[in-house]
Amino acid sequence: MKNPVIIFGANNLGRAARDIFASNDIVIYCFLDDDASLHGTELDEISVLGKTDDDGYLKLIGKKCEAFVAIDENKYRKGIVKMLNERRKVMPVNAIHRASVIAETAHIGHGNFINMGVKVADNAKVSNHCILHTNAVIDYSAQIGDFVQVGAGSVVNAGAVVGDEVFIGSGVTIVGGVKIGKGARIGAGSVVIKEVKAGETVFGNPAVPVNT
């Protein structure tokens, strides 16, 4: 990647993304954020210049700049991605820390945040717009859908299939071959040994459904 990056989201995830791009010697053009109180300020010496739909900066994307969406709330994240797709005809770039390990045979989509220490093994698939926190492991032939968040230190074992928009807390273990349905939520520290239905919230060792 040669162009500078505009980061959508002047928050802790945005700061972590800035660190990732810096680790790869990529220049950050600016942050954009809808919190007007941040406009004109700096975050780690990078200016917050305007709102996420500011045409003055959006027109740079796809020509002089790339875009990365550093927002962990899926509804908001999806809205920004849709706007970039429709108005700029672009997909956000990946933020992949140089201290992560990605197998040559792994498939990585677009717009993913992959922090330091993450391991993505042979033939594993990470689709689009996922957030993989520090030291997460996606083992061989596991599949991760779109807009999935995997907490720090969690392990998705070989052949597991994680549907779209799933939230996996920190320190979770998903055993090999298990399927996790769309929109499911898995509490921190859980051990998942059987299928989790779409939209279900589970917690514990072994993980069981909980009322929300």
Keywords:
alpha/beta; eight-stranded mixed beta sheet; 24 strands; 15% helix; 29% strand
Characterization of this structure:
This protein is of the alpha/beta class and 212 residues long. Helix content is 15%, strand content 29%. The chain has helices spanning 12-23, 55-58, 74-88; strands at 5-8, 28-32, 42-43, 46-50, 66-69, 95-96, 101-102, 107-108, 113-114, 119-120, 125-126, 131-132, 137-138, 143-144, 149-150, 155-156, 161-162, 167-168, 173-174, 179-180, 185-186, 191-192, 201-204, 207-209. It has an eight-stranded mixed β-sheet, with helices on one face. Helix 1 links the parallel strand 1 and strand 2. The mean pLDDT is 96.
List the helices and strands and how they pair.
Elements: E1 5-8, H1 12-23, E2 28-32, E3 42-43, E4 46-50, H2 55-58, E5 66-69, H3 74-88, E6 95-96, E7 101-102, E8 107-108, E9 113-114, E10 119-120, E11 125-126, E12 131-132, E13 137-138, E14 143-144, E15 149-150, E16 155-156, E17 161-162, E18 167-168, E19 173-174, E20 179-180, E21 185-186, E22 191-192, E23 201-204, E24 207-209
Parallel strand pairs: 1-2, 1-5, 2-4, 6-9, 7-10, 8-11, 9-12, 10-13, 11-14, 12-15, 13-16, 14-17, 15-18, 16-19, 17-20, 18-21, 19-22, 21-23
Antiparallel strand pairs: 3-4, 23-24
Fraction in helix: 10-25%
Number of strands: 24
Secondary-structure element series: EHEEEHEHEEEEEEEEEEEEEEEEEEE
Biggest sheet strand order reads 6-9-12-15-18-21-23-24
Measure the end-to-end span.
43 Å
Which structural category do the helix and sheet elements fall into?
alpha/beta
- On the 0-100 scale, what is the average pLDDT? 96
From the spread of the alpha carbons, the general shape counts as globular
Alpha carbon gyration radius: 17 Å
Question: Approximately what portion of the residues adopt beta-strand conformation?
Answer: 25-35%
